[in-house]
Design brief:
The chain is an alpha/beta fold and 215 residues long. It is 32% helix and 24% strand. The relative contact order is 0.17.
């Protein structure tokens, strides 16, 4: 399988002073995610992208690849610089901030991506909610209808993107013009975006293991 998993990681961010090294269970968010990825791919297929020496040491300890990136790059430049350094056909971009997206999801997504010969695939959550945009009804009419009858919206979970390397570099993006959507449930879609999300996610670890081992 000609793919590489890329996990961007930083020592600090807006949800925790330790960033992707924040404690999670008996490990860190980064090491938690590396462990999930190792259930899907070999260590040689996993790349950690960071400007942190501490994170580089973790990559060495975990026996995965490390891409040293320049400090101060904006997100798009970081993405292009990182992907360009990986010699593979397909890129699987995975974020530590979706801790409940596991190997089973990655395997299913990559199977869909291969089977349907897609240019890009992104994890999303399907929601049926009343949506306004610029003060206009977006997915429902003037006739007030039941929520179950409104047109669904799809929210990117930021958990997993799969894309052909050449397309990612061409568009400088993790999405092609018409990406295919892969729906995940609300639990898997859980994302750490702030301190409150991080606190809630830690409380949900026991639920994750119950779902993993069906107990």
């Amino acid at each position: 399988m000609s793919f590489a998993i890329i996990i961007p990681a930083q020592e600090t961010n807006k949800y925790h002073k330790l960033g992707d090294l924040a404690p999670f269970g008996d490990t860190t968010l980064l090491e938690w995610k590396i462990s999930q990825c190792k259930e899907f791919a070999s260590s040689s297929q996993i790349y950690i992208s960071s400007d942190s020496e501490i994170i580089e040491e973790i990559a060495q300890k975990e026996e995965v690849n490390f891409i040293k990136r320049k400090t101060g790059l904006n997100y798009q430049d970081m993405l292009v610089e990182t992907i360009d350094k990986v010699d593979t056909t397909d890129i699987i971009w995975i974020n530590t901030t979706s801790p409940f997206m596991n190997a089973n999801v990655y395997k299913a997504m990559y199977k869909k991506y291969q089977t349907e010969d897609l240019s890009s695939l992104v994890s999303v959550e399907n929601k049926k909610e009343y949506i306004f945009f610029n003060n206009h009804r977006l997915n429902f009419s003037d006739d007030f209808i039941s929520r179950k009858d409104v047109e669904p919206i799809y929210i990117m979970t930021n958990g997993c993107y799969i894309i052909k390397k050449d397309i990612a570099l061409q568009f400088k993006n993790l999405l092609s013009n018409n990406p295919e959507l892969y729906e995940v449930d609300s639990f898997v879609a859980s994302e750490i975006k702030d301190v409150q999300d991080y606190t809630i996610a830690k409380e949900m670890i026991s639920i994750y293991f119950r779902k993993e081992f069906d107990v």
